[in-house]
Design goal:
The protein is built from 13 helices and four strands. The protein has 368 residues and is mainly α.
């Protein structure tokens, strides 16, 4: 889930980004950007589109026979452990250098992004179709823009305001009662709360938090912290007591394996590579392509209905997201480039691309 802020100095100076932590990137000179062929970048984008778009379908299949919070907890604890192990192999002692403030802020970000964000997705998809969940979560940039304005006084270009209005209209079209039936209220509320929590975590990550310097370590710690929060949520709702592994279907086990390995590990590493070698506006296109992928896959794999009203709502919501991202990126383009040696947490010109559920203006987190 996320928008990008494109930052530039002069017409003669190009900029690139280097990830310093999940949820934020630091602006560096274009000469420092690693090279990659256009074909490799296109392949990476296709992987990102499909992997993160398909996770909504994976979640839907997994929660058919798995408790939602317990499933999400196990997913992120395992994925976080894999990433942390990889970080230890690559960085050795550096992987263990994390202070109390970084651990505290990682816990807060993980709790908001994964506990509230992904936990509510899993809960909501028990009753809400995957395609509709993806569309509602895609509106995360709208919540980032609204909260950024209210809490941090960030500027809202007129085009972004129009995008917010269109997003609200799209949600209205999507959830309004119709002759074909209505969406389950509890599931709908959970799915709407998901991008709100994700946006809150994204803004905290970019404006307040001090996270580990190594992006791989930061993501691993956030996943582990978020997984622990989800485990507490599972315990509080009685999911541990009522869970019977023998009752889990093969389809749900396979979906869980896919979410853990492909969705979390491969999806993040692909995203992390892309933001180093490709222009941010190009990478940010996943924010409005992913919902379309989820929409199509939901119809093909799950037989979800593609009514004219749902298609219209999808077009309005995806258009609103694209408008918000584009407007805010252009507004950020006049900002000065950050000193590459400056921590993102301390820099007012940090860039966020958030994947998760949807794009954000100042941060970039892995999508679901």
């Amino acid at each position: 889930m996320t928008t990008t802020s494109a930052t530039a100095t002069t017409a003669s100076t190009t900029t690139a980004t280097t990830a310093t932590r999940p949820g934020a990137t630091t602006i560096v000179r274009g000469a420092d950007r690693p090279s990659a062929s256009p074909l490799a970048i296109a392949a990476g984008l296709l992987v990102l589109y499909f992997v993160w778009g398909s996770t909504y379908v994976g979640i839907k299949i997994a929660v058919e026979s798995m408790p939602p919070f317990l499933m999400a907890s196990a997913r992120f604890l395992l994925a976080g452990a894999l990433l942390f192990g990889w970080c230890v192999l690559r960085e050795r002692r550096e992987a263990f250098r994390i202070d109390r403030v970084e651990l505290r802020d990682s816990f807060i970000v993980g709790a908001l992004l994964l506990g509230g964000g992904m936990g509510m997705v899993a809960l909501g998809e028990q009753t809400v179709p995957a395609s509709i969940a993806a569309l509602l979560i895609a509106l995360m940039p709208m919540w980032v823009a609204i909260f950024g304005r209210i809490v941090f006084g960030e500027r809202l270009p007129r085009a972004a305001v129009l995008g917010i209005v269109l997003g609200v209209v799209g949600v209205g079209i999507l959830v309004a009662p119709a002759s074909g039936g209505t969406l389950a209220l509890g599931g709908l509320i959970a799915v709407i709360l998901s991008p709100i929590s994700w946006a809150s975590g994204s803004l905290y990550s970019s404006h307040v938090a001090r996270l580990p310097r190594l992006p791989l370590l930061a993501t691993a710690v956030e996943m582990l912290c978020g997984g622990l929060v989800l485990a507490v949520m599972a315990l509080a709702t009685g999911e541990f007591a009522g869970f019977d592994p023998a009752a889990v279907t093969q389809a749900s086990w396979l979906a869980f394996l896919y979410l853990t390995t492909v969705g979390s590990v491969i999806g993040f590493t692909t995203f992390s590579w892309l933001i180093r070698v490709a222009p941010l506006p190009k990478v940010a296109t996943y924010a409005y392509v992913n919902p379309v992928v989820a929409f199509v896959l939901g119809a093909i794999l799950l037989g979800e209905e593609l009514s004219p009203r749902t298609v219209l709502a999808a077009a309005v919501i995806v258009g609103a997201v694209a408008l918000i991202i584009t407007a805010r990126s252009r507004a950020e383009a006049v900002m000065p480039v950050a000193d590459p040696s400056t921590s993102v947490a301390d820099s007012a010109t940090s860039v966020e691309i958030n994947p998760r559920p949807a794009p954000s203006e100042r941060s970039a987190e892995p999508a679901p």
